[in-house]
């Protein structure tokens, strides 16, 4: 019990690192680059490491500030330049550098394929552009150096209170109807998550629940996309025309789900930044015989809705 309380206290004290603070943050081009690198920046920010997007020698990179004033540079191979889109390179290279100490240069990870067919490949090359092995390698090295502010195990949400795990779905038996059993256990789990969102006492709590859905590597949306993609592959195994048609429909569904995750990639941060409005003061009671107020004039044109 004491350990659980200690973990709960630590979780409350380890918020995600804030977004960068510069004027480019409000520019559409920068927001698109941030979206494309969210699978790298989000897990690192969850560990308390501030991230930013910059242009390197020939491609965009992620710059990660470390507690000792050194920094990480994470990006694709810079020379020669790659024709892969930002955030989806053929491989990642992560180095640690220091602005005032040129002797400090360390390669933490290199999964880029070698241009020389006869050259020995790096062990990480088999991972290509996958993000999770990169994050794991950074976790390991920064922990060795004592530079990881808030360690967060892979596949564990950094936001959800450890003392408040998602509970197993309760029984929803209806009198007079047979017990459904575990037939809809996943739907019930999501329904319970929705109930917790409805009862959230703060926008920070609501953001933590959004994280469960939108986290770009282990969240529900990305896993749901993987599910539909796997279902499409299973449909192909029938080697029938309808099986192939079904696989295309399922692949389209997976793509739409991933696109939804990309559209909502900053919803968690936006939710956390919201400030609840103070309750309006109550007006004194109107006397029973007080004259009624004249009706308020309606606007000549409907107001524009803004987000």
Number of helices: 9
Radius of gyration from CA coordinates: 25 Å
Distance between the termini: 44 Å
Secondary-structure element order, N to C: HHHEEEEEHHHHHH
Roughly what fraction of the amino acids lie in strands? 5-15%
Number of strands: 5
Structural class: alpha+beta
Helical residues, percent: 25-40%
Secondary structure elements and their pairing?
Layout: H1 2-12, H2 28-36, H3 38-46, E1 51-55, E2 60-65, E3 71-75, E4 93-97, E5 105-110, H4 132-145, H5 185-198, H6 203-214, H7 220-236, H8 241-263, H9 267-273
Antiparallel strand pairs: 1-2, 2-3, 3-4, 4-5
Question: What labels would you give this structure?
Answer:
307 residues, alpha+beta, 5-stranded antiparallel sheet, disordered N terminus, disordered C terminus
Summarize the structure.
The two termini are 44 Å apart. It is globular and about 60 Å long.
Question: How does this structure look, described?
Answer:
The chain is globular, with a radius of gyration of 25 Å. It has 307 residues and is α+β, with helices and mostly antiparallel strands. It contains nine helices and five strands, in the order αααβββββαααααα. A hairpin with a 4-residue loop joins β1 and β2 (60-65). The protein has a five-stranded antiparallel beta sheet. Helices cover 38% and strands 9% of the residues. The two termini are 44 Å apart.
